[in-house]
Amino acid sequence: MAIATEIRSAATEAHWLLALGDAQRATGQPARAQDSYRRAAALQEELGDRARRAAAWDGLGQACLQLGRAEEAADCHRRAAETFRDLRLPWETARTLAHLALALDHLPAPQEAADVRARVLGLLTEFADRRALRLRDSLVRRSPPGDTPP
Asked: Which side of the chain, N or C, has fewer Cβ within a 10 Å radius?
């Protein structure tokens, strides 16, 4: 990060801020991760990289959920998913919508969560790799009884 700042490379700094946010979130530092994701999103906005900006919003949503702010998390995930959808990135859209469903599970929005899970499962039909199968399995496990996915 220091090198990126020193050489004044906004692209490099934005990239590392996103990675730093992921590491902070993974090591139980969601408050610090929020700052990294917000800074990454702002730099990606300046750079015009919509996909990485959406990735920063998705990470921010995950950090917010770790902090118990499910409504804010859902807003971040909606924003990221819309961008990924507009960019025609189905895997990123599916993964982000899965994060949205998890946030919605923490809100009094069971029908919306079920609808989002169904959308994700529909997107996942395009993928047969291991990560897609794990994501599908996690969604099926979280589905309430009677909400049998396809």
From this structure: C
Per-residue pLDDT tens listing for the chain (150 residues): 554 455 467 888 899 999 999 999 999 999 999 999 999 999 999 999 999 999 999 999 999 999 999 999 999 999 999 999 999 999 999 999 999 999 999 999 899 999 999 999 999 999 999 999 999 999 988 776 555 444
- Angstrom distance (rounded) from CA 134 to CA 139: 9
d(CA 120, CA 79): 16
Could you give the C-alpha distances from 140 to 23, 93, 121, 130, in angstroms and in order?
A: 27, 18, 9, 15
What would the two tokens of residue 15 be?
A: 């990239």
